Amino acid sequence: MTEVTVEAVESVGAQTVALDLSTPDEFDAAPGQFVLVRKDAEGDAGYYTISSPYVEDTFEITVGFPIDESAEESLGTWLSEREAGDTVDIEGPLGHVQYRGEGDVVVYAAGPGIGPAIGIAERAVDEGNDATVVYRGEEPPHQERLDALHEAGATVALVDELGGDYLTGDTANVYVFGFDDFVAEAKALLEADERDPGEAAIESFGPA
Fold it and tell me: Contact at 8 Å (CB) between 39 and 48?
């Protein structure tokens, strides 16, 4: 495990914060990958996907936490209460799903999948590529960054259910981030569009 410093904590939506963490030496990560975050040597641990487009000096993770304040403190709640100057332990980067500027992207996301979706889309636009973010749900976290992406020319769509409207014949990079049910829905969408889901970059967060 590597100890990193919390540089900033910002509310980015309902029951959701973004933590900027100091980047450790030789931390060669890209949006789409994730880190293991541990409360302390013996404490709770959880996986959080990188939601910043780059990781040079700091990197960001997006953390949701429970609404029920009477419930036993979760790792998400504990992280949401961190302040600048606090430290946390991480391990990573982990995972093979990542984006380093390789062409246009279409990112399907739901729930906590908005974090990596934002980071990938921002990286794509910054690299001069087209980006589309399709989020299933209402009032996603990071709305200000989604608005900025739209202003920069990206396509941002909030939908009740997935459809193939945003897939084109020359779509090269398809990413999917969400819980198991959402991933299954996205795979079915790709198959209906005569695409091989095995060629998409898919990260499931497990059961909802």
Answer: no
